[in-house]
User: Which sequence fits this backbone?
């Protein structure tokens, strides 16, 4: 007899035992959390630490660069009029010009400007008009200080200007030995400026500027302009103070 209870030719049955609750994990897994912990600074290599420091420094420099006020360049156009003070026989027709400059974060700006003005000359000596027209070209350098009140920016400064004048359309010839149909003169003028800009957008402003100019030195290419016989009343245009007022449009970039 088979005392083990097995029948020859058959496989013995296997009993499966389910695990008890004490064998299951007591803390549920959170799939949203990283299963891999980041290494602590003490576990980083020297190269990794240097890389992190370099990246942090670079980001800090970028942040300071954006926070720090930047210099601003600008270009403007102007149109207006020029008036010779105390002079009745020189009448301004039109004045137009352009300028470019750089505005520093501290409010100081340096500017280069060019302006063209045209004048009609009436009789000035014994009812004679030697020349009837004068063209004036100003090439100037200015230093200004601008106050920033947001949309409104007033400014004031000083100007040094080279002035080239050309007299043409000659009418009277009999007095002078010179028979030139055109004569020219050169001058260095100094002056003051007052301006006001109103911002229309971040990159564009409209404004107005006033300038007062006085002569420092002058020279004429022909003694015809400086002959004392011509100036029994008044004085040459080159020695006369003048002012201008212009409307401006300024692009900032």
Assistant:
């Amino acid at each position: 007899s088979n005392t083990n209870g097995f029948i020859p030719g058959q496989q013995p049955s296997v009993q499966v035992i389910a695990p008890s609750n004490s064998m299951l994990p007591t803390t549920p897994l959170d799939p949203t959390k990283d299963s891999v912990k980041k290494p602590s600074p003490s576990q980083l290599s020297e190269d990794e630490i240097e890389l992190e420091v370099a990246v942090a420094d670079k980001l800090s420099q970028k942040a300071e660069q954006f926070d720090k006020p930047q210099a601003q360049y600008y270009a403007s156009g102007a149109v207006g009029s020029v008036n010779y003070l105390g002079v009745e026989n020189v009448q301004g027709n039109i004045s137009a010009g352009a300028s470019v400059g750089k505005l520093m974060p501290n409010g100081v700006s340096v500017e280069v400007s060019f302006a063209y003005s045209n004048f009609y000359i009436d009789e000035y000596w014994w009812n004679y008009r030697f020349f009837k027209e004068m063209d004036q070209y100003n090439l100037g350098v200015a230093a200004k200080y601008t106050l920033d009140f947001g949309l409104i920016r007033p400014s004031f400064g000083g100007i040094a200007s080279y002035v080239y004048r050309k007299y043409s359309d000659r009418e009277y010839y009999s007095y002078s030995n010179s028979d030139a149909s055109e004569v020219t003169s050169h001058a260095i003028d100094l002056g003051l400026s007052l301006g006001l800009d109103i911002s229309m957008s971040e990159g564009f402003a409209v404004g107005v500027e006033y300038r007062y100019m006085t002569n420092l030195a002058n020279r004429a290419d022909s003694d015809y302009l400086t002959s004392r016989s011509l100036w029994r009343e008044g004085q040459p245009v080159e020695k006369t103070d003048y002012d201008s007022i212009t409307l401006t449009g300024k692009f900032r970039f």
